[in-house]
Structures are given as C-alpha cells and as structure tokens.
Automatic annotation (TrEMBL):
The chain crosses the membrane at residues 45-68, 75-99, 142-164. Keywords: Membrane, Transmembrane, Transmembrane helix. It is found in: Endomembrane system. The keyword Transmembrane helix applies. It is a multi-pass membrane protein. The keyword Acetylation does not apply. This is Isoprenylcysteine carboxylmethyltransferase family protein. GO terms for cellular component: endomembrane system.
C-alpha cells in the first residue's frame, strides 16, 4: 500500500478537474458546422481505446499501490515528487493556454475535424509548437509517474509519445489538405511537439 497517498492526491484532483470540468465545459462546434472529418480505422480506435483503458487503470492502481518504485529513499521520492508536480503544472498551464487560444477549434483529444470558416491557429502557444495540447498531456503523464516514483515513467512516456506522433501525422495530413501551402509553410517553421529553433520569419 502507498504510504504517501496524501501527497499523490493533488495530482489526481488536477487530472479530474482538467478532464471532468474544464474539457467538458469547453464550447464545441455543432456537427452540422463541420467541414472536414479526420478518419481512423477500426484497428486504430481499438488500439486507442485499449491504451486509454490501460492508462486509466494504471492511474488508479498507482494511487493506492507502489508499482516498480524508482527508490525507497525519502529524499529521492521527495525530489521526484517536486519534479513531477512541476511537469504536471506546466502541462496543465500549456493545456489551458492552448484551449483558450483554440476556442471552437477544439474537437477533443483523439477526434479531429475542421469546422466551416475555421482558420489555421498560429497564435498563442501555436506560434511556438503546432500541437501544444498533446505535449501538455505527455508532460502530465510523465509528471504523474514521477509523483508516484515509478520506473514506468519511461514506458508511459514512450507510449504516449508514439501514440501522439501517430495522431499528429494524421491530423497534419488533414490540415495540409485544407490549408495547403499555408500549413506547409507553418509546418516547416514550427515544430510539432518541440520548438523549432531555426528562423521563424514569415509567421
């Protein structure tokens, strides 16, 4: 059983507030106003649903039990706890900033679509990276693994990165088909998950 449950609970509350309160209250575009839908195969949806179930299950199991601990040393655990919460708060902040910038352009985590008259968003965090919300979620997932001091931080981080890389590939294809050269230029100048340190003139 986990002895520092009280120190892990804030991470759970942040996740609950973000998913159940903030995301659910966001304005969504009406279905009859959607211009283009992204498409996933049944295999893709099965994989994503399985990974989502696995992630949520692991989340609750680790709240109660210590799973593959990095260390038993309290100083190390405390250090990881601090780093973990910093990553969670950073991810939470980036997510809120990006969602406020998107407005009605937000379509959900794994669905992607373009509404009528929607312009390519290149302001706010989208001026720095193309997919800040996905980066935010990756940071929060890694942060939680550090908060619970688990070696699974590497497994979770790598899987989350690969899942979102695949999603980004599909989403970028949809955006390029809609915005043509405008998106191609934006993609060349702005990194997907990490800032592009090269010249960004023209944005």
């Amino acid at each position: 059983m986990r002895e520092n449950l009280i120190l892990v609970l804030p991470a759970v509350l942040i996740a609950y507030f973000q998913v159940r309160v903030i995301w659910r209250k966001l304005p969504r575009s009406q279905e009859n106003n959607v211009k283009v839908y992204g498409e996933y195969t049944e295999k893709d949806w099965f994989l994503y649903n399985f990974l989502h179930f696995f992630a949520v299950s692991l989340f609750w199991v680790q709240l109660v039990f210590v799973v593959i601990p990095i260390s038993r040393d309290q100083c190390v655990i405390c250090f990881l706890l601090i780093i973990g919460y910093l990553l969670i708060l950073l991810g939470f902040t980036i997510s809120i900033w990006a969602l406020r910038t998107l407005g009605l352009g937000w379509s959900g985590m794994m669905e992607y679509k373009i509404v009528r008259e929607q312009k390519l968003c290149t302001t706010g965090p989208y001026r720095i990276i193309r997919h800040p919300i996905y980066l935010a979620v990756i940071l929060e997932m890694i942060g939680y693994q550090l908060v619970v001091s688990s070696w699974l931080v590497f497994v979770v981080g790598i899987i989350a990165y690969l899942v979102f890389r695949n999603h980004i590939k599909n989403e970028d294809k949809l955006l390029e088909g809609e915005y043509k050269e405008v998106f191609v230029r934006y993609k060349r100048q702005v990194g997907s998950l990490f800032p592009n340190l090269r010249d960004k003139s023209g944005l």
